[in-house]
Design brief:
Elements lengths: L5 E6 L4 H11 L3 E7 L3 H14 L7 E3 L1 H6 L5 E4 L3 H13 L3 E4 L7 H13 L4 E3 L8 H9 L8 E11 L2 H6 L11 H17 L7 E9 L5 E10 L3 E8 L1 E12 L3 E4 L10 E7 L2 E5 L2 E5 L2 E7 L9 H15 L5 H21 L5 E2 L8
Parallel strand pairs: 1-2, 1-4, 2-3, 4-5, 5-6, 7-10
Antiparallel strand pairs: 7-11, 8-9, 8-17, 9-10, 11-12, 12-13, 13-16, 14-15
């Protein structure tokens, strides 16, 4: 196989991995060679189902976790295993010399994530968290508009919501409501995206203070609904809400002294061939008995299919990661921003466990 092709293994037959199966297939610098499960028969069943829908020229093989890490035909490993057991396998993958694409939340806390990053650094392998929207072509366009000093002006406020109304089966049996498997619940599964978006807007400046609240939790103490306020230097504040109890929403809003920008779909773009956002600079005209509030919207968009295409965000993620893995030149940006996201998440949860008290935004005793 050509040296510019990154050979992938998937460690865990999770549902989200189906999306990255297709992304690996569509990225011209990637190939999938093996899928692992604790039960190889399950891996084979999962593999066959995906191969029938989105086939690789050479079908991947099925094996168990340990066998995957020993295989010489695997350069990088995608790990969608539950957060509660992820550290063990990230460290083992790194020790085996495999580059690691890790699902989010990366760990139950920043201390565990730091152990993963230390292992990756020791073996000189790339680490990245699987936040697909970070690889959308929309973000560079959004950055240019945020930084033009006119559309938004001086930044003041960032807000976002990521939620979906889970059904009874999910709330009773999904691993995302299990204290052992996914102790962070909605905060980890959804809030990771809210926090990452706010940090991205702030160019990864950490908040000085945060206040968080668990609005509802299940009987095991796993957050089902969470909200937080983040306070950044320079008078910028951010808030977010994430929930397994509220209808599907994935919106974000950024506002300043001159205008605002709205994204209706900041995580997964609405189905279609464009990823967009709308900027607005309203004007309030008062004259006599007339009170006219005028909207002056401007739509910005990039050509980019929402999913399952060569230019979708998840394909760009695989393409970028594969390029880094095969280049031998690691990018420390990705582990750094994963750690910052985890640190802020930990601080939000620490505040919530303390009744919403303000805590240091980097209060997790991790040297950043």
């Amino acid at each position: 196989m050509a040296s510019n092709i990154c050979r992938w293994g998937i460690l865990g037959a999770a549902n989200i991995a189906r999306k990255n199966w297709k992304a690996i297939r569509l990225a011209e610098n990637a190939a999938l060679t093996v899928v692992a499960s604790r039960e190889p028969a399950r891996a084979k069943e999962w593999l066959d189902a995906n191969q029938s829908e989105c086939p690789f020229p050479t079908a991947p093989v099925a094996c168990n976790y340990e066998e995957l890490l020993m295989r010489p035909d695997v350069d990088a490993v995608y790990i969608p295993l539950p957060t509660g057991i992820r550290r063990e396998w990230v460290v083992k993958a790194a020790n085996a010399g495999k580059h690691v694409l890790c699902e989010k939340p990366c760990g139950p806390n920043a201390t565990e994530l730091l152990a993963m990053l230390d292992a990756c650094n020791a073996k000189n392998v790339q680490f990245m968290d699987g936040v697909m929207f970070m690889h959308s072509k929309r973000l560079p366009l959004l950055r240019s508009v945020l930084d033009d000093n006119e559309t938004v002006g001086q930044l003041r406020r960032i807000t976002s919501q990521f939620s979906f109304a889970a059904d009874e089966g999910f709330l009773k049996g999904n691993i995302r409501v299990s204290r052992e498997m996914e102790p962070l619940g909605a905060l980890g599964d959804l809030g990771w995206y809210n926090i990452r978006f706010a940090l991205w807007v702030m160019k990864y400046s950490l908040p000085t203070k945060v206040s968080g609240r668990v609005l509802t939790e299940n009987t095991s103490g796993v957050p089902m609904e969470f909200s937080a306020e983040l306070f950044f230097p320079g008078g910028v504040s951010a808030s977010f809400y994430c929930s397994f109890n509220t209808e599907l929403q994935q919106w974000a809003h950024v506002s300043g002294t001159k205008g605002s920008i709205a994204l209706r779909d900041f995580v997964l773009p609405y189905y279609g061939c464009e990823a967009e956002f709308v900027a607005d600079r309203p004007v309030f005209n008062v004259k006599g008995t007339r009170y006219h509030w005028e909207s002056h919207p401007k739509r910005y968009a990039v050509t980019e299919y929402s999913d399952g295409s060569p230019d979708a965000a998840e394909t760009n993620m695989i393409r970028t990661f594969s390029g880094l893995a095969m280049s031998g030149k690691l990018d420390s940006t990705w582990p750094d921003i994963a750690l910052k996201t985890q640190v802020v998440l930990d601080a939000c949860l620490a505040s919530a466990r303390d009744g919403g008290a303000l805590v240091d935004g980097g209060a997790c005793a991790v040297d950043l």
